[in-house]
From TrEMBL:
This is Glutamyl-tRNA(Gln) amidotransferase subunit A. Gene3D superfamilies: Amidase signature (AS) domain. Belongs to the amidase family. GatA subfamily. The keyword Chloroplast does not apply. Its EC number is 6.3.5.7. One of its GO terms (molecular function) is ATP binding. Residues 10-414 form the Amidase domain. The keyword Iron does not apply.
Length: 422
């Protein structure tokens, strides 16, 4: 196994039989595994060993899967390239010398490299779909509440969902069948996935399917990406689907709203890592404030510090209404626009990422460029909707992903449509 894909390479055997018996699974390193190190790609949790399994891990074991390792990720899920990991960057097996996307880059890379049949990631603003697109595999971001978050180390509670990767849509759907459903330990879960059979929906039948194309999600995208996107839509049309333009005017403000909300939630969630209750210790010299500051200075990387500081500022007295409240208002507007667009079409389609994979090291000094690269994925998280990224083709030899978005708990519809391409 490649050191740049896995942080921990400890095998965990599941039950002897079950729907995933004989399948190997890589698990993103922010998902708790009993007795196995779980670091979130951070020095802060370099030696953390959870005393329990996340619900999704328990379900993997019960289904007979073999967990082959904990996959590398951007630190605490904050990044688009997997280069912010304390343990080093991950190369892209589908495009060597380029990033695998983030933050679940190790999970996507494990599937693309054939080092795992399936993988789990988490998606707060595109962290499953971006790596799926960059690595040329399939990634599903479920509806908020379809999959339990118990045991997922939190970054942005109101936005994140655990989602599956697979080489094909049917593979990813089979993993979704195992992890979906209500959980008494996560009050945000819903029962819609309790009896679903998502793998059976991967029929590839798109006859009569209506696809809406939000024009705003094509603006500013790389020319080669857009061309590849239209070629994929033409293939769906040949199979019986139709497509037409729709509008999502609110997405102009989605990236700004997303980062205010996500950074604010990160500031709150990461406050527990003080070197005393949790995380790396900076040493104790009798002054708690200095100890706290030293632990976080040494334990967190630059991107995490940046987001915590910005989130703390957005929540501070005098600025809460100016930033956080306005961002929540924008979130409601985004959801309303998606609902209206989905009343005019069965699914919505766009390029997953507006650009092909960056070269390793290319974007590290420009965080704004990375934030803007999330323009097509973060609106879906704001709207709490499901989405899937499937390989659409290549531009200049680099993978391009097609994103399909559906109504809440419309995963079966998305899987059926996406399986016509992968």
């Amino acid at each position: 196994m490649s050191d740049d894909i896995f942080i921990t390479e400890e095998r965990i055997e599941g039950a002897e039989d079950g729907p995933l018996a004989g399948k190997t699974v890589a698990v993103k390193d922010n998902i708790s595994t009993d007795g196995v190190r779980t670091t979130c790609g951070s020095r802060m949790l370099e030696d953390y060993v959870p005393p329990y399994d996340a619900t999704v891990v328990s379900r993997l074991k019960d289904a007979g899967a073999t967990i082959v390792g904990k996959a590398n990720m951007d630190e605490f899920g904050m990044g688009t390239t997997t280069e912010t990991s304390y343990f080093g960057e991950t190369d892209n097996p589908a495009a060597p010398g380029h990033v695998p996307g983030g933050s679940s880059g190790g999970s996507a890379a494990a599937v693309a490299a054939g080092e795992a049949d399936l993988a789990l990631g988490s998606d707060t603003g595109g962290s499953v779909r971006c790596p799926a697109a960059f690595c040329g595999v399939v990634g599903i971001k479920p509806t908020y509440g379809l999959v339990s978050r118990y045991g997922l180390i939190a970054y942005g509670n109101s936005l994140e969902q655990i989602g599956p990767f697979g080489e094909t849509v049917e593979d990813a759907a089979q993993l979704l069948d195992v992890i979906a459903g209500s959980d008494d330990r996560d009050a945000t879960t819903r029962s819609e996935g309790d009896d679903a059979n998502y793998a059976d929906a991967a029929t590839g039948d798109v006859d009569g399917l209506s696809i809406g194309v939000p024009t705003e999600l094509l603006e500013g995208a790389d020319e080669g990406v857009v061309e590849t996107f239209w070629e994929a839509l033409d293939e769906l049309e040949e199979r019986g689907a139709t497509y037409h333009e729709v509008s999502l005017p609110s997405v102009e403000h989605a990236v700004e709203a997303y980062y205010v909300i996500a950074m604010s939630e990160a500031s709150s969630n990461l406050a527990r890592f003080d070197g005393v209750r949790y995380g790396h210790s900076g040493g104790y010299d009798g002054n708690w404030n200095e100890t706290f500051a030293r632990a976080r200075e040494e334990g967190f990387g630059d991107e995490v510090k940046r987001r915590v500081l910005l989130g703390t500022y957005a929540l501070s007295a005098g600025y809460h209404d100016k930033y956080y409240k306005k961002a929540q208002d924008a979130r409601a507007w985004v959801k309303q626009d998606f609902d209206e667009a989905l009343s005019e079409a069965d699914v919505l389609a766009s390029p997953t990422m507006p650009v092909p994979p960056f070269e390793l090291g290319e974007s590290l000094d420009d965080p704004l460029q990375l934030y803007l690269a999330d323009a097509n994925t973060v609106p879906v998280n704001l709207a709490d909707l499901p989405a899937i990224s499937v390989p659409a083709g290549e531009t200049d030899g680099l993978p391009v992903g097609l994103q399909l978005v559906g109504p809440a708990f419309g995963e079966e519809r998305l899987i059926r449509a996406a399986s016509a391409l992968a």
